[in-house]
């Protein structure tokens, strides 16, 4: 019965994906070649929007700034999340469920709220020395966003790593112990190889989250000073909405398409690299 009527059950999800993603994506791709204020008055102008997007120095700076942020946050989040997961999966450690809940809770708070909370916290600390985060250089804003992102995402990745660690067959760990392997050797020779599928997932999530970061960037620094801490998503938003005229909306749409292609390409490279490690293990 189910085999015969499976298309009927698939239809709601397929329609949602079609009208919620495919149609808007195709429409957005077309608009990236147009000058427009609204969809109804779009005028095709060819590759002018893309030429203007690539010529925009702020867009190039935002890309490199975002790329650096994504790499640094990806490394730090996964290192700390795995370290905490290893600690919370040790035997005879009391209160592990409480610790897991506490570490995971920041992920439940919305990005824009987190941004404003950390803006107040950081500026409150810096005000003691007569400084404000938004008035500092891009380095201060960069590490402010790194701290915020670590606090928000480490707990979520920790849960995934805990699930991966608990799925490792106990026979492997017992065999390593019998062979006299140290805790460090067990980690690198047994746990890490068996965690590669989990690492693939966590790297995928953290690198995409790093590139897509918007709410926290807007609330914490708003791209200041002078667009120095402006990341790609915020740059696209400012191009599309903060500048007047259909010309800038078209350029913003072109930037969004470029952004989408860049993220897909980077993620595909990451997935290929980590999944190849899974095959080798």
UniProtKB/TrEMBL annotation:
Cellular compartments annotated: Cell membrane
Topology versus the membrane: Multi-pass membrane protein
Superkingdom of origin organism: Bacteria
Domain ABC transmembrane type-1: from-to ranges: 63-270
A Pfam family: BPD_transp_1
Transmembrane segments: 62-89, 101-122, 142-163, 256-273
Primary subcellular site in the record, as a coarse category: membrane
Keywords: Cell membrane, Membrane, Transmembrane, Transmembrane helix, Transport
InterPro entries recorded: MetI-like (IPR000515), MetI-like_sf (IPR035906), UgpAE/MalFG_permease (IPR050809)
PANTHER family from the UniProt entry: BLL4140 PROTEIN (PTHR43227:SF11)
Family of this protein: Belongs to the binding-protein-dependent transport system permease family.
Protein name according to UniProt: ABC transporter, permease protein
Source organism: Lancefieldella rimae
């Amino acid at each position: 019965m189910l085999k015969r009527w499976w298309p009927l059950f698939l239809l709601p999800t397929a329609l949602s994906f079609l009208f919620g993603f495919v149609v808007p994506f195709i429409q957005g791709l077309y608009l990236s070649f147009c000058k427009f204020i609204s969809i109804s008055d779009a005028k095709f102008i060819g590759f002018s929007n893309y030429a203007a997007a690539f010529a925009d120095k702020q867009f190039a700076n935002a890309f490199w700034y975002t790329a650096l942020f994504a790499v640094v946050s990806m490394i730090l989040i996964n290192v700390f999340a795995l370290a905490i997961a290893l600690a919370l999966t040790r035997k005879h450690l009391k209160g592990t469920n409480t610790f897991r809940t506490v570490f995971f809770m920041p992920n439940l708070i919305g990005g824009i709220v987190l941004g404003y909370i950390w803006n107040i916290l950081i500026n409150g600390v810096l005000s003691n020395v007569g400084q404000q985060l938004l008035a500092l250089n891009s380095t201060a804003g960069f590490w402010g966003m790194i701290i915020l992102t670590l606090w928000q995402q480490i707990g979520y990745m920790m849960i995934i790593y805990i699930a991966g660690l608990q799925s490792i067959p106990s026979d492997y760990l017992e065999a390593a112990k019998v062979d006299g392997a140290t805790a460090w050797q067990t980690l690198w020779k047994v746990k890490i190889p068996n965690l590669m599928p989990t690492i693939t997932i966590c790297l995928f999530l953290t690198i995409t989250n790093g590139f897509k970061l918007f709410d926290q960037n807007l609330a914490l620094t708003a791209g200041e000073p002078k667009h120095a801490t402006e990341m790609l998503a915020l740059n696209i938003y400012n191009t599309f909405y903060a500048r007047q005229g259909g010309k800038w909306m078209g350029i913003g749409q072109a930037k969004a398409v470029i952004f989408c292609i860049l993220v897909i390409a980077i993620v595909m490279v990451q997935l290929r690299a980590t999944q190849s490690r899974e095959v080798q293990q």
